[in-house]
Amino acid sequence: MRAENNVIARKLFEKAVQASPKNRFSWHVWALFEANQGNTDKARKLLKIGHAVNPRDPVILQSLALLEYNCASPNVARVLFRKASQIDPRHQPVWIAWGWMEWKEGNERTARSLYQRALSVNSTNECAARCLQAWGVLEQRVGNYTAARRLLRSSLNINSQSEVTWLTWAALEEEQGDPVRAEEIRDLYFQQRIEVMDDASWVMGFLDIIDPALDSVKKLLNMDRPSGQVMQQGRNRGITAEGSSTSDLDSGTAEGSSTPNLDSIVDRRAAYTREAESDFDVDGFIRRRLALDPAELDAVLEGSDPGVISQRRTRRLTRKPLPLLPVP
């Protein structure tokens, strides 16, 4: 079932980039999907393509930097983090991710300076809460427990719903040999969580927003009706959104599929045994639609124009003679 879903997801990503070749979200999310599947080389190429068509997007460079660090290339990751921070110095997640990497590499002083840079952008938003929590973990690991407590409390002052921060603080107290205080912190977390959940006005307001959207989605996907009624409606229309005939819908129903229109995208039966090889030519596509040479993606990433070799030439300016002064 998982292999089947992967094939369907990959086909949908391919259709997404074909429909909107310069959409940064399509290339980015597809790359993250491939990285999660262990296809590091393909994920790297997709991120480079996404950067080539969106050179001012720091998020793609941040993901590429983390991918390179995961592949044991911290120096390459530093170059990418620096480039992303230069593109948008106010993008806090870049500074936080960079600081996390430096901490993992044992560079605590550099990590602290990067966390400070992130907080200098904004010290009261959700990113600041995550930054303070990460900084608190750093201080805990190096033994600065007083600083760690202060940072974790500051993070909770911004976002009191962070389970990770509460449990990190409780673990710190247990590590310090104070299990009573650790249990008090856990009780505080569950108490404030119950208080938020018991707020009926907040719950009703949230459901009032969600329910109409769910009804619309159900009607769009025909989820409220049996599959037989869906098939009958498909026969009446004669064609699906993907351009498939009614015979395709009949075959999808025979296979017992609840979403027969996906059969026009991928052969679901072939995915039960192994993931089918995709016939989508990424290199050919970016050549035709984006005028990109796959061999020049690294050059684009480095900031140079693909196919153009620039050489610096030093030119000596000729010295102009001084004007002659008139003789009195």
UniProtKB/TrEMBL annotation:
Which branch of life, at top level? Answer: Eukaryota
Q: Which Gene3D superfamilies match?
A: Tetratricopeptide repeat domain
Q: Which Gene Ontology biological process is one annotated for this entry?
A: mRNA processing
Q: Could you tell me which SUPFAM superfamilies the record lists for this protein?
A: TPR-like (SSF48452)
Map out region (Disordered) in residue numbers: 225-262
An example molecular function term from Gene Ontology annotations: single-stranded RNA binding
Question: What GO terms fall under cellular component here?
Answer: chloroplast
The record ties this protein, via PANTHER family, to:
PROTEIN HIGH CHLOROPHYLL FLUORESCENT 107 (PTHR44917)
Q: What is this protein called?
A: PsbB mRNA maturation factor Mbb1, chloroplastic
Provide the gene name from the record.
Answer: LOC125551891
